[in-house]
Amino acid sequence: MKSFYSKLAAMLPMAMLLAAALTVHAGTSYDYDADDRYGVYAYAYSDTLYGPPDVTKWAPQPKPAPAAPPVLNYQVGNGDTMYQIARDFNISLQTLMDYNDITQPRGLQIGQTLRIPQPDENIGLPPGDAPVVSRVLSSTLTAYTAGIESTGKTAAHPDYGITYSGSRAEEGRTIAVDPKIIPIGATVYIEGIGIRKAEDTGSAIRGSRIDLFMNDVGQAREFGVKKNVKVFVLKEA
Asked: What sign results for the dihedral spanned by CA atoms 78, 81, 84, 88?
């Protein structure tokens, strides 16, 4: 019997310690250390120590506002009609009228600027302010070089590679145009090609036809003839 009471007395302090450690107090959390079967550590949680819980990480985040569709400006020229302008930019007549608060499609004036919505994507014009388009053409594209096969000049000629405007022809920039249709110095955007500068002319370049300058004669021949290509003539700032 004495042995039993001795064992009980020996176990009592440990039981009291464990009971005290497991007593739950408001604002206190506990962690049991598996490496020390009797080691109990209390980590006090309070607003003073850690600050209020951040609930914003669980709150629904607002969705970004949808980007406004890119916009072009078109300057009305002689002979333009609302129907033709809408067709050139692949939008409906009603959309064009609504976008510009126009109720009568026959009321256009030369020099008037219309805003043209581009619902899918920008046609590829340079970023920045909305560009002003002064004319839309359906063109035939060909390619030429500075060599004798295109200009009749050899590399020994003093004007070899020199354009009508006086600049040196550069692939990726220079095009030959009919100045009656596209003024020399004008910037154009050619659908599927990109931005080009009207710097040259040619005896075979008449009407809306455009000749793209290339360095290599093989590439120029491979380019061939491309018809019904949309060309946007940009108004100079």
From this structure: positive
